[in-house]
# Entry
Amino acid sequence: MTAPSDRIADTLKLSRPAHRALAAANIVTFADAATWTRKAIADLHGIGPKTFTELDPAMAERGLTYKDR
# Structure
């Protein structure tokens, strides 16, 4: 089971479209996001620049980075 602080939806105040886009891509935790490139996440319908103003610092806080390619 995933700790609540690891779940993106429980931690970040993202728009509903962004939450839906991440969930549809099975990106539920910050570790899930780390298996994707930043560009691939940005290309998801519903993800905009504001998503990364929340997601980037949260990833860094957890010592995680996006996949390189």
Notes: Residues 49-61 form the longest helix (13 residues). The chain has one domain: 4-61.
